[in-house]
Automatic annotation (TrEMBL):
Presence of the UniProt keyword Chloroplast in the record: no
Recorded name of the encoding gene: nadD
A Pfam family annotated for this UniProt entry: CTP_transf_like
Protein name per UniProt: Probable nicotinate-nucleotide adenylyltransferase
Organism field: Halomonas dongshanensis
UniProt key word ATP-binding: yes
């Protein structure tokens, strides 16, 4: 009897705070790639950016409120147990060990995060562990740098079927159906100014932010 091969997604982020751009992308990613589940993983110390405004355990609680019971999305706190920068290669290494060598493991990043991908930690090892899906995002249409073009060179595939033909090593640039133009930066600014964030993030996340008096000036 043949056994179905697991298809697993990893969606890491600072999530400071989580918003509908993240959540809608995760749901659509799961549908587009027919993933069993998407691990939503907050980064306590995201590399290549400043210190988040809110601490990791509070960002985790907001993510849990935002994901709620969404089918196929799994809030995963594993990076909070680690010290030092939250390198994705370390997280993927753990997921690969858990799901085994034939699982299709896919890390999703927005096009803005991908623009600095050449600076990420241990890229060769990362591509041995996982595929990378680059998600389009409104307002980020800058052309690829030479370093990125070189990375894409022999790894880029045209569609989901080609990506899923192997466990790791490919890059797929994907335009998911609803590209939601919201950023955590914009939300932090709105909250600091006392302006409304309604309909930009889940109601449960807004309630938790208000109850805990987060992101106020
Ligand atoms: N609206 C969006 N649509 C698609 N992808 C997104 C969107 N917002 C964030 N992402 C992606 O989600 C991941 C985590 O993003 P992050 O938590 O840094 O949110 P952000 O809105 O970009 O935050 P900030 O404004 O603080 O930089 C990154 O790969 C990022 O590209
Ligand atoms: O591994 C790296 O070198 C690396 C460099 C930059 C970002 N990341 C991860 O990418 C995810 C998105 O990061 P950010 O800063 O766009 O929120 C988050 O999970 C980070 O830990 C990872």
């Amino acid at each position: 009897m043949t056994q179905a091969v697991a298809r697993i997604g990893m969606f890491g982020g600072t999530f400071d705070p989580v918003h509908l751009g993240h959540l809608r992308s995760a749901v659509e990613l799961r549908e587009a790639l027919m993933l069993d589940c998407v691990h939503m993983i907050p980064a306590p110390s995201p590399p290549l950016r400043g210190v988040p405004q809110v601490d990791a355990s509070q960002r985790l609680a907001l993510l849990e409120a935002g994901v709620g019971d969404t089918p196929g999305l799994k809030v995963d706190a594993r990076e909070l147990d680690r010290v030092g920068p939250s390198y994705s290669v370390d997280t993927l290494s753990e997921l690969r060990a858990e799901y085994g060598p034939s699982a299709r493991l896919v890390m999703a990043v927005g096009v803005d995060a991908f623009s600095r991908f050449a600076q990420w930690e241990r890229l060769e090892a990362l591509f041995e562990l996982a595929h990378v899906v680059v998600m389009a995002r409104p307002g980020y249409d800058t052309p690829w740098s030479d370093a990125l073009r070189e990375l894409l060179g022999h790894r880029e595939v045209d569609d989901v079927a080609a990506l899923m033909a192997s466990p790791s090593g490919g890059i797929l640039v994907l335009s998911l159906p609803s590209r939601i133009d919201v950023s955590a930066t914009e939300l932090r600014e709105r909250l600091a100014d006392g302006r409304s964030v309604r309909y930009l993030l889940p109601d449960a996340v807004e309630r938790a932010i208000v109850a805990q008096k987060l992101y106020r000036r």
